[in-house]
Amino acid sequence: MELVSELGFWQRMAETRGEVVLFFSSAGCHSCRIWRKLLAKLEEQRANLQVWEIDAGVDMGITQEFEVYHLPALFWFRDGQYQRPIQVEARVHALEQWLDAHADLPPEELP
User: Fold this and answer.
1) CATH no., domain 2-82
2) What is the mean pLDDT of each run of 10 residues along the chain (111 residues)?
3) Which residues, 6+ apart, have CB-to-CB distance to 64 below 8 Å?
4) Phi, psi at residue 84, to the nearest 5°?
5) What stretch or stretches form a coiled coil here (predicted)?
6) Contact, 59 vs 6, CB < 8 A?
7) Whole-angstrom Cα distance, residue 20 to residue 107?
């Protein structure tokens, strides 16, 4: 899992191949700690997946751009294109099923 910032975010995303789960979190968020562990495990299991974490309290510009109102917030990108927000229970198996079920859907517009 890599901590990223809003600086150069869009250029880097455009150049990235494979899947990226963008994870908005905050230091004091208990649910974020649970998701951080789950996402680290998922990243180990899926060779083509990267997890990028954004501290919502530090990088407020991109947090507002994604219209994040609660934490944690997860968004899925594939080959640099925004796919959709991720809304699933906090279990590795459930997240894997969600990603597989949405794999053939076309990209969506950003929030």
Assistant:
1) 3.40.30.10
2) 95 96 96 96 94 96 95 97 96 95 93 82
3) none
4) 175, 165
5) none
6) yes
7) 13
